[in-house]
């Protein structure tokens, strides 16, 4: 339960991090809060040769609300989201979801960009960004590009981020209607067995741990847009999902939970 | 690589392998064995210390990530409280240590250093925590002896007394 | 001096633990130490065909790599790891060596050991040892081991290790069932549990620079037993082995074994002349430390028309795991006597069959056999209540020993004599504290309203056997040792007292409780008492801590040794007073002559007189020091009633424990604060079995949830604060009237919680729920009961 030997460099800026990524190629991994990567390194499931520590790039730690959107630096820590007055006003959903990630000590270290780049479909914040219709800003050797959250996640722990890119900013619309997050787990500190995020009174709904990526519940969104009741809309919540089977839940039970939690989230978000 | 850490007010400069976990640096290199290791998955919180004033799981940080930073371990908590003028009881401990003693919030004591460090961080962050808030604030710290009853009682008492 | 026995004195142990000063094994370092890294089998059952060590040996800082075959050749041990409890004369006990050679029999069994100069390098080297195996079919559940064709040990022609019976009067059992108006039966699964003491196990063996001595620091509950067994296993003369259990971070039974790592550390340190150490990682522990429970239970109750019990019949299939460890086969027997619970049962029969499986060995875990027994009878009593159509409180009242009134020396059908009991009041008080009638009203309201979240109330009145001691009784059960405990009490020249305790704490607060006993006996301050323990050089005699025995055996030994010191001091006082000893009285620490209360001498002043020995009575040896080895005539039988209140979300299957009441009776209490703490922790361990924990093995014999991420030790958010109260029925087994409380919480709580879950679900016709009652399992049960095809297998 000790990481394999690894080299370590601290990057002082996004540019420096990207140039180091370019230099080291596939051998390198970005280290932000480390709460996704280090556990895998301790189990030796990840054995990068080079770590590039971006955790000190303080210029990428900010939460700004402006012109109907909130821009969040990728290295903003979960605890900063959890306690943000800006988010309390502009995007309380994100503030709340951040407050139920892991446990307080984890939230003191984990970063928004880190959890998005890790692309774990069982994580809370990726689904929240997806439900909110967020935009992710990646920076690479050729500058920045914007990626819609809906386009970002590709599979388990995989995204469209190139090997020489890092996330620098996340943008979500501010305001919006009622919201709710239903996180179903057995212990508070655990990942969600299933989670359902409802943003903007049901205009954006995303599912946690119901497939290889966080998923938009487009069927539910469409049903609601067509005037369906919460119960009727929730009935289609599991359609098109491909949930994992593990000790906590088989696909049948996960699908069932998704429907129950979607209805609860919709009712609470009204 | 070279690493400088201020731990409990003392600055240490050491040569470490980059992969060295902060908890192993504290325990094996600096001899601060009060911080314990109870798991290998960031689940139990026995290794909780304060980094830059906030609780962190020192098994899930590389020592080099903390380079140049300030760390408080259980060994430094009472001294920190004395400096802050909030120490209490016959032993001049931090109020949280005193409350754990008064409320029988520890048995084997292995989770205790991490629990106490998490609890002080929790009250810093949420000074008005009620029982639910205390339990949620300690959700990342496991104890096998107490059933948490007296730990929760201790944190609520420390909150009242601090 | 006011009384200190029975008062909630704050613990003397706390200071070191609260400031990080305590030294656990991994905190202790010696120069030149080598770290062991264990190469473990990834297969449940396989033949080792070859092991390549050259890659590891070439790594920097790697000192040696030893395979099982090497070590056997080196002659490091003279006997396999011990099983001290061959429960039958024909019990099968395949040899279990610290490192396998030939076949491996469970995932996690050690196949080679690496020695390196740091923990990091040892971890690196493990990955470079390449082991080739031919896999063999594996028996990966006790049902498979019983019913299937696969043999856990290829060289045995059966998996059944033993059959053990306790049927004092077979004809009476037959008659009880033949004439019964009602027979109910239950099949219950005691899932395997991973003990998960917060401190993982660890060892450090330090050879003396000159000579043949070895000091072993181990995170163990049993330093004395470990010393004897290490000598018997390694052939190192016993007097050359010193075992120290430093601060130990919880045990719960998991640290009472004789483990491969302990024997490896001792023998390799001796061979190399260097200190050798190892610290278990949490995920490794699932294969390196024994597990608990692992039983299939079948229980039948025979009752009259009014629910009065006529007989109880039990069959257990017990999962031994891959090997017999120290008391593996004895664990189910410890429970055998308790399957009649707190009830007046005229006829009783019990059969246990132990089976080998290709899984981590089982052994003691908090309660060791007794939580299982309590669960079976208390679940079955609820089934009987349903059958008869009375409430769970009423079925219990109808059957309590002596009608729920106080009794002493009740001979149970199991042939044990229950020392004392008084069961009715604990039920009355628990129901009152829980607000039982109000809960039933609320439950009816929710049912009527068809609410999604339903309420369940579960009762359990348990009795347990603790103070595992009477050596004759243990001998009668084929146990390989006695059960006495030893204590020395000495008054130092300055009047301070040193107590040497044979029982060894790992969180129980012995230093505080023993100080209170001495303070009370001798009329001195508890802060004038120091308790020495857990080092066989300081405390050479002892049988250690398990089975809730410390107070009822070891604590009593301390009280008796204090009495002997007082008696000797009385002779010295009488000499000083020039009075007859029988005229000298002792009160509040002071001796005086009856009739002349003005002249007194305090016992602490006599310490110096005994030390200088200038003027002692003729025939009296210098010094005030006395020893007692106490072997009680009987076990002690604590009891109590627990009430669990749960909410079941029928839409998701989630069970939430919302209230918990426990009224326990552990006889006289030394320190109510410590009693309370033991109960809190014990209750949550039982709740954890009921709702959260299970070591899950896949079809290949891998544990799928070895880490604390996947094995759900409850956190503070999963359990409520608890409401406790007590009744006090002193034990008749010992002069302090104490019983023991270390396991009581666990013995009461799992049954109470599952009874509550079943109570909540009873409108669905659900009368049983397998542990842990996970959301998936509960939801599936509801679905199945509703005839809805959606629920899969649980």
Describe this structure in words.
The complex is a heterotrimer of chains A (270), B (162) and C (794). Chain A is 34% helix and 24% strand. Chain A is α+β, with helices and mostly antiparallel strands. In chain A, the strands form four sheets. Chain A has a five-stranded antiparallel β-sheet, with helices on both faces. Chain A has a four-stranded antiparallel β-sheet with strand order 11-12-13-14, sandwiched between helices. With 162 residues, chain B is an alpha+beta fold. Chain B contains six helices and five strands. In chain B, helix 3 packs across helix 6 (149-161). The model of chain B has no long low-confidence stretch (mean pLDDT 97). A seven-stranded mixed β-sheet of chain C has the order 3-5-1-12-9-10-11, with helices on both faces. Chain C is globular and about 90 Å long. Classes of the chains: A alpha+beta (270), B alpha+beta (162), C alpha+beta (794). The A-C interface holds A 1-2, 4-5, 43-44, 184, 186-190, 193, 247-250, 252-253, 256-257, 260-261 and C 119-120, 123-124, 127, 281-284, 651-652, 654, 692, 696, 704-705, 709-710, 712, 714-715, 717-718, 774-776, 779-780, 790, 792.
List its traits.
heterotrimer, A: alpha+beta, four-stranded antiparallel sheet, 12 helices, 34% helix, 24% strand, C: 794 residues, alpha+beta, 29% helix
Q: Would you spell out the secondary-structure blueprint of this structure?
A:
The complex is a heterotrimer of chains A (270), B (162) and C (794).
Chain A: E1 7-10, H1 14-24, E2 28-31, H2 37-42, E3 50-53, E4 63-66, E5 69-73, H3 78-82, H4 85-90, H5 92-99, H6 104-109, H7 112-118, H8 124-131, E6 135-140, E7 143-148, H9 149-152, E8 153-155, E9 158-159, E10 166-173, E11 180-184, E12 194-199, E13 204-208, E14 215-216, H10 218-225, H11 230-234, H12 251-269
Parallel strand pairs in A: 1-3, 2-3
Antiparallel strand pairs in A: 4-5, 5-10, 6-7, 6-10, 8-9, 11-12, 12-13, 13-14
Chain B: E1 2-7, E2 10-15, H1 22-29, E3 48-51, E4 54-57, E5 70-72, H2 74-84, H3 95-102, H4 112-125, H5 131-137, H6 149-161
Parallel strand pairs in B: 1-5
Antiparallel strand pairs in B: 1-2, 3-4, 3-5
Chain C: H1 14-19, E1 34-40, E2 46-52, H2 54-57, E3 62-67, H3 68-74, E4 103-104, E5 110-116, H4 119-126, E6 130-135, H5 142-147, E7 160-166, H6 170-178, E8 182-193, E9 202-207, E10 214-218, H7 223-234, E11 241-244, H8 260-272, E12 276-279, H9 285-288, E13 292-303, E14 309-321, H10 331-336, E15 347-356, H11 370-388, H12 392-397, E16 407-411, E17 417-421, H13 423-434, H14 436-449, E18 453-463, H15 471-476, E19 485-491, E20 497-501, H16 510-522, E21 529-532, H17 550-577, E22 584-587, E23 590-593, E24 596-602, H18 603-612, E25 624-630, E26 639-649, E27 655-665, H19 672-691, E28 723-726, H20 744-761, H21 775-785
Parallel strand pairs in C: 1-12, 10-11, 14-15, 20-21, 27-28
Antiparallel strand pairs in C: 1-5, 2-4, 2-6, 3-5, 7-15, 8-13, 9-10, 9-12, 13-14, 16-17, 18-26, 19-20, 19-25, 22-23, 23-24, 26-27
Helix pairs in contact in C: 11-20, 16-17, 17-18, 19-20
């Amino acid at each position: 339960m000790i990481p394999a030997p690894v080299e370590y460099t601290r990057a002082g800026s996004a540019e420096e991090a990207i140039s180091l990524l370019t230099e080291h190629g596939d051998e390198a991994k970005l280290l932000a809060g480390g709460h996704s990567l280090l556990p895998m390194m301790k189990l030796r499931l990840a054995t990068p040769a080079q770590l590039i520590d971006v955790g000190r790039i303080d210029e990428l730690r900010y939460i700004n609300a402006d012109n109907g959107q909130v821009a969040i630096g990728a290295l903003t820590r979960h605890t900063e989201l959890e306690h943000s007055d800006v988010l309390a006003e502009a995007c309380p959903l994100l503030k709340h979801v951040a407050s139920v990630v892991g446990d307080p000590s984890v939230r003191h270290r984990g970063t928004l960009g880190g959890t998005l780049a890790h692309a774990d479909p069982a994580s809370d914040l990726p689904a929240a960004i997806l439900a909110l219709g967020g935009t992710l800003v990646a920076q690479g050797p050729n500058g920045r590009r914007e990626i819609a959250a809906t386009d970002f996640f590709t599979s388990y722990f995989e995204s469209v981020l190139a090997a020489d890119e890092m996330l620098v900013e996340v943008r979500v619309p501010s305001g919006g209607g009622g919201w709710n997050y239903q996180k179903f787990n057995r212990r508070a500190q655990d990942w969600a067995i299933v989670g359902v995020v409802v943003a903007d009174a049901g205009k954006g709904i995303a599912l946690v741990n119901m497939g290889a990526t966080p998923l938009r519940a487009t069927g539910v969104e469409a049903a609601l847009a067509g005037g369906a009741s919460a119960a009727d809309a929730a009935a289609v919540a599991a359609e098109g999902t491909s949930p994992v089977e593990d000790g906590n839940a088989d696909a049948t039970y996960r699908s069932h939970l998704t429907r129950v939690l979607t209805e609860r989230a919709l009712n609470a978000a009204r | 690589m070279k690493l400088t850490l201020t731990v409990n007010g003392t600055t240490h400069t050491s040569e470490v392998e980059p992969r060295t976990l902060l908890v192993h640096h504290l325990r094996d290199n600096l001899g601060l064995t009060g911080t314990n290791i109870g798991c290998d998955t960031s689940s139990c919180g026995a290794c909780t210390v304060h980094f830059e004033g906030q609780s962190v799981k020192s098994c899930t940080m590389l020592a080099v990530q903390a380079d140049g930073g300030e760390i408080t371990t259980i060994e430094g908590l009472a001294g920190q409280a004395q400096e802050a003028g909030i120490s209490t009881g016959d032993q001049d401990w931090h109020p949280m240590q005193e409350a754990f003693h008064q409320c029988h919030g520890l048995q084997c004591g292995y989770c205790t250093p991490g629990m106490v460090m998490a609890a002080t961080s929790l009250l810093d962050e949420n000074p008005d925590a009620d029982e639910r808030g205390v339990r949620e604030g300690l959700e990342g710290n496991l104890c096998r002896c107490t059933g948490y009853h007296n730990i929760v009682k201790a944190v609520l008492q420390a909150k009242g007394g601090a | 001096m006011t009384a200190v026995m029975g008062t909630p004195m704050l613990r003397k142990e706390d200071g070191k633990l609260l400031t990080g000063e305590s030294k656990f094994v991994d905190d202790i370092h010696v120069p030149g130490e080598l770290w062991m890294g264990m190469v473990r089998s990834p297969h449940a059952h396989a033949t080792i065909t070859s092991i390549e060590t050259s890659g590891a040996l070439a790594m920097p800082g790697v000192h040696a790599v030893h395979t099982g075959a090497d070590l056997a050749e080196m002659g490091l041990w003279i006997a396999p790891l011990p099983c001290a409890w061959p429960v039958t004369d024909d019990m099968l006990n395949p040899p279990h060596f610290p490192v396998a050679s030939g076949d491996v029999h469970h995932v996690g069994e050690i196949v080679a050991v690496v020695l390196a100069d740091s923990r990091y390098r040892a971890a690196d080297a493990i990955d470079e040892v390449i082991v080739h195996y031919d896999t063999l079919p594996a028996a990966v559940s006790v049902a498979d081991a019983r019913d299937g064709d696969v043999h856990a040990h290829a060289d045995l022609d059966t998996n059944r290790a033993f059959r053990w019976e306790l049927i004092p009067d077979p004809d009476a059992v037959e008659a009880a069932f033949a004439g019964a108006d009602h027979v109910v039966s239950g099949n219950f699964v005691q899932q395997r549990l991973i003990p998960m003491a917060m401190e993982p196990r660890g060892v450090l063996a330090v050879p003396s620079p000159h000579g043949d001595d070895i000091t072993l620091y181990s995170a163990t509950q049993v330093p004395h037993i470990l010393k004897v067994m290490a000598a018997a296993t390694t052939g190192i003369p016993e007097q050359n082995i010193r075992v120290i259990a430093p601060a130990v971070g919880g045990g719960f039974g998991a640290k009472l074994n004789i483990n491969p790592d302990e024997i490896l550390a001792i023998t390799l340190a001796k061979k190399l002349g260097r200190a050798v150490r190892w610290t278990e990682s949490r995920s490794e522990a699932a294969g390196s430390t024994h597990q608990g429970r692992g039983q299939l239970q079948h229980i039948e109750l025979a009752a009259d028309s009014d629910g009065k019990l006529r007989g109880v019949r039990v069959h257990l299939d017990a999962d031994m795991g891959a090997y017999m460890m120290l008391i593996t086969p004895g664990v189910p027997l410890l429970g055998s006597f308790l399957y009649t619970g707190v009830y007046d049962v005229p006829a009783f029969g019990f059969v246990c069959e132990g089976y080998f499986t290709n899984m981590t060995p089982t052994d003691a875990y908090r309660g060791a056999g007794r939580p299982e027994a309590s669960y079976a009878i208390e679940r079955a009593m609820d089934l009987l209540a349903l059958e008869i159509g009375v409430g769970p409180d009423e079925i219990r009242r109808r059957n309590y020993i002596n009608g729920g009134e106080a009794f002493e020396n009740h001979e149970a059908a199991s042939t044990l004599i229950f020392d004392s009991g008084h069961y009715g009041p604990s039920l009355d008080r628990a129901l009152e504290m829980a607000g039982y009638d109000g809960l039933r009203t609320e439950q009816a309201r929710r049912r009527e309203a068809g609410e999604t979240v339903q309420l369940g109330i579960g009762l359990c009145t348990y009795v347990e056997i603790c103070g595992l001691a009477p050596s004759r009784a243990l001998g009668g059960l084929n146990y390989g040792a006695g059960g006495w405990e030893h204590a020395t009490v000495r008054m130092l020249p300055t009047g301070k007292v040193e107590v040497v305790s044979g029982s060894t704490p790992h969180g129980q607060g012995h230093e505080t409780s023993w100080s209170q006993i001495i303070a009370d006996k001798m009329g001195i301050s508890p802060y004038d008492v120091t308790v020495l323990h857990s080092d066989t050089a300081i405390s050479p005699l002892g049988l250690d801590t398990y089975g809730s025995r410390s107070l009822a055996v070891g604590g009593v030994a301390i009280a008796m040794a204090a009495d002997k010191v007082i008696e000797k001091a009385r002779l010295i006082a009488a000499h000083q007073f020039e009075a007859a000893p029988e005229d000298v009285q002792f009160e509040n620490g002071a001796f005086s002559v009856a009739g002349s209360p003005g002249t007194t001498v305090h016992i602490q002043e006599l310490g110096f007189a005994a030390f200088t020995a200038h003027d002692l009575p003729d025939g009296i040896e210098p010094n005030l020091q006395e020893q007692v080895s106490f072997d009680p005539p009987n076990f002690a039988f604590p009891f109590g009633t627990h009430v669990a209140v749960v909410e079941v979300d029928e839409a998701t299957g989630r069970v939430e424990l919302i209230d918990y009441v426990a009224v326990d009776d552990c006889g006289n209490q030394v320190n109510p604060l410590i009693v309370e703490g033991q109960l809190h922790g014990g209750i949550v361990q039982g709740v954890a079995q009921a709702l959260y924990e299970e070591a899950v093995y896949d079809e290949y014999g891998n544990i799928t949830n070895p880490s604390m991420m996947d094995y759900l030790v409850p956190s503070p958010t999963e359990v409520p604060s608890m409401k406790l109260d007590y009744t006090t029925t002193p034990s008749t087994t010992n002069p302090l009237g104490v019983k023991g409380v270390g396991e009581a919480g666990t013995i009461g709580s799992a049954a109470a919680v599952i009874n509550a879950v079943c109570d909540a679900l009873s409108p669905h016709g659900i009368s049983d729920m397998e542990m842990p009652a996970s959301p998936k399992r509960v939801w599936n049960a509801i679905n199945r009961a509703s005839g809805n095809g959606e629920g899969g297998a649980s």
